[in-house]
Amino acid sequence: MARTVDQKRYAERREAILSAAYRQFATNGYDRTTTAAICREAGISSGTFFHYFPTKLDALVGVLLAGVETTRGELQRITAASPGLAAVLNYARVWEKDIGDEHFGGFAGAVGGLPLEPSVAAALDAESSLIAQFIGHHLATAKKQGELRDDVAVETLSTWTRWLMDGAAHSAVQGEASSGELSVAISALLSAR
Questions:
Q1: What's the CA gap between 167 and 182, in Å, rounded?
Q2: What pLDDT, in 10s, does the model give residues 79-136?
Q3: Residue 90 · residue 81 · CB < 8 Å
Q4: Which domain holds residue 84?
Q5: Nearest one of 172, 137, 177 to 157, comparing CA atoms
Q6: Could you tell me if 108 and 169 are in contact, meaning their C-beta atoms sit under 8 angstroms apart?
Q7: Domain-located, residue 100
Q8: Separation between Cα atoms, residue 83 and residue 69, nearest integer Å
Q9: pLDDT digits over 64-76, tens only?
Q10: For residue 147, what is the domain's CATH number?
Q11: Contact 135, 88 (CB under 8 A)
Q12: Cβ count near 187 (within 10 Å)
């Protein structure tokens, strides 16, 4: 007879493992993080860990993919609330809050320190593509609404916006505190004069 799985408990336990893995990778780096440390922090046995994630790398990819889904939900929420330039600026505020998380720099450093791993690269590319599409779509809308400067193509403004966001993330990885002005910088870059 097949065992019935409590979906809510399964999801809660998976989330606990991913949260513990995120903190462990952020604090100790990928190489120095052990599955035993993740299990201790999550309050689970190693058997439970391996039921959810066959390897430490799978747990890391799980953290990244959970981040993609969180980003997807956030972008959908922002899109529903405000199109155009307001959407891009709202996402910049969300991004600045995300990179201000005490574990962001350590986690980004842990991921960045890995040799090219296809599953990690795929997860990072998925999030990057999602954000690029969001920014491009909303800047095109902003252009139609007359909210954007008109001396530069939308595609170029989209690239510049992503550069500013990436630069803010890089600063966070370097331990520089967020100034709270990313959306101000993006607005100054993009707004019609």
A1: 10
A2: 999 999 999 999 999 999 999 888 998 999 899 877 788 999 999 999 999 999 999 9
A3: yes
A4: 58-190
A5: 137
A6: yes
A7: yes
A8: 20
A9: 999 999 999 999 9
A10: 1.10.357
A11: yes
A12: 16
